[in-house]
Amino acid sequence: MFQPVVALAAIVNAAIVDVTSEAPTTVVASTESSSTSTANTRTPTRILLPVVDSTAITETLVFTRAHLTDDAFEDPRIRYKRKRINPKSRPEYCKKVMRAAMFDIHLEASSDRFGKRYEEFLNKSRSNDIPKSSIEQSQLRALIDETRRDLEKCTNEIGCIDIAKVLEVQESLLAPIRTLPTEVMCFILHLVVSSGYHHGVIELTVDAEDGEFECKSEEISLLSKVCSRWREIIHSDPSFWSNIQLSGRVITKFFLPADFRAMSTCLEEVLLRSGTAVPMCLDVCFSSRSWCESDTVGLFPILDALAEQASRWREAKLSFTGTKPHLVHMLEQVRSRTTKFPKLENLRLYATNFDVFDPGFFGTMFSHCPRLHTLELSSFRSTDLFDLRHLTTLTIYTYFGSSFAALLEKCPRLEFFKLDHSVTGSESES
């Protein structure tokens, strides 16, 4: 790297030494443009030598960074021309100026070199292209040692910053976290996601203010942007995509079908990534002020898609407020697909209409839930067939029945029970 600079400096020094009172000369290196050469397309660096006195001639040194290579001075495109300068010029002063120019040239070339090296190793870092064999690791350590030596020798502040950036990204390729097995790395990412503010929930919602569809997953989105390996781990692990929340604070006639189509498309992508075996946590919450069949027709395909995943539910919280029985529609779709919920642990069914479920509506739908320990219902009839054997927490807002004894007998492990309202004499209606 220093050879071109030394060669150019030698030419300048020789020219200055030859200065005589009769025909003093200096050397100006210039390049001839070539339309077929891509190297000459770079902007040349021009250094103006200051005027020595009122009669001296200002000279210009013209070159491009492309010529600062080991064979730069063998390039036939470079020519050297002798030009006369005023004999009153001070050779020693000119010599200092030219040497300063050579130093600036070297700094620019060095910055360009380390800039390219930084980009090279940064791309490796982003793609997790780490040295795997002992030979590759030794080669990288040798490069790191070389970069450290360059940093120690560097006396220019800007140059030190460039070299330090290269050193940092080189050392990062040998970081222990990069060699962790995928399973361990996945576990760590899960801990980070679960400890976040949103706990890794993928939220699909229709905003109440502007009526636009939004898909939010802050922790997952942030981690997947760190590097390609983390992104690959997150996108390939279904458990990152199995915690889904659908919500629409207020659904009115002003909502467009396009919002529901966007939500449906996004949901399909999330369900595809969630696989088929990983348990799912589902939270669906919609409310309305003015329900109309035409307003919310786009919501039904979304509910149908979620109903298809019923056998995977670990947590299911379904809450609808309004006059139209969207909750009933979704549960009907569930009932037509399965009556067994082997993974269900937490179930919440809520609707503002306490009589939204007709007598006998549930049938044997939830009669096989061996892991169900938490149940919350907006209404419950003493004749409804729920698997209550393993319940520890039961919340009922409206109970239809004349006695609690029969209900409590079905909950031998119950630890917490809450009841807001009861309606007696309703069992005969069933």
Provide a descriptive summary of the structure in words.
The chain has 430 residues and is of the alpha/beta class. It folds into 3 domains: 106 residues, no CATH class; 51 residues; 248 residues, no CATH class. The chain is built from 11 helices and 14 strands. The strands form 3 sheets. Strands 5, 6, 7, 8, 9, 10, 11, 12, 13 and 14 form a 10-stranded mixed β-sheet that branches. A two-stranded antiparallel ribbon has the order 1-4. β13, α11 and β14 form a beta-alpha-beta unit. α1 packs antiparallel against α2 and α9 packs parallel to α10. The protein is elongated. It starts with a helix and ends in a 7-residue tail after the last strand. The relative contact order is 0.05. The N terminus and C terminus are likely disordered. Keywords: Signal.
List the helices and strands and how they pair.
Elements: H1 2-17, E1 25-31, E2 45-48, E3 60-63, E4 78-84, H2 91-126, H3 134-153, H4 157-172, H5 182-194, E5 202-206, E6 213-216, H6 218-223, H7 228-236, E7 243-251, H8 257-274, E8 280-288, H9 299-307, E9 313-321, H10 326-335, E10 346-351, E11 374-377, E12 380-381, E13 393-400, H11 405-409, E14 416-423
Helix pairs in contact: 1-2, 2-4, 3-4, 8-9, 9-10
Keywords: Signal
InterPro entries: F-box-like_dom_sf, LRR_dom_sf
